[in-house]
Amino acid sequence: MSKLSKIEREAAAEALAALPDPVLDDADNPELAIEDMARLSAPEAVLAPEILAAFPKTRVGRPRDPQAKQLVTLRLRPAVLEAYQSEGEDWRARMERVLAEGVADGGRRGRTSG
């Protein structure tokens, strides 16, 4: 995203200030009071099933990933952490790749006896 110059910002502010104030009071659609909201009915109580079927229930947001990563706390030796961090900002992804590779090979790599 490009930054606006001071002159462009001032021109945009002037153009915005020149716009008429929006009408926020609409007599045909008054704001609901808490008492009004308490009297509202659930859609299932007032709409026919065929109408409800036209509006399937959907989840809001991103779909859940069955393989979603989990947030964990991990205690590491300072030298290990510094080594990963020194290689760049993607150190967490690289560390996760190394751990995943260890799991893929049965955990044989890097394992010490004892």
Descriptive report:
- With 114 residues, this protein is an all-alpha fold.
- The protein has helices at residues 6-18, 34-38, 43-46, 49-53, 78-85, 91-104.
- The longest helix is centred in the C-terminal third of the chain and has 14 residues, at 91-104.
- The radius of gyration is 29 Å and the shape is flat.
Q: How would you sum up the global shape?
A: flat
Tally of helical runs: 6
Portion of residues in beta strands equals under 5%
Number of strands: 0
Amino- and carboxy-terminal Cα gap: 55 Å
Please trace the helix and strand order, writing H or E for each element: HHHHHH
Poorly predicted parts = none
What percent of the residues sit in helical stretches (DSSP H or I)?
40-55%
From the helix content, strand content and strand pairing, which structural class follows?
mainly alpha
Report the sheet with the most strands, covering strand number, pairing sense and barrel closure.
Answer: none
Overall pLDDT: 86
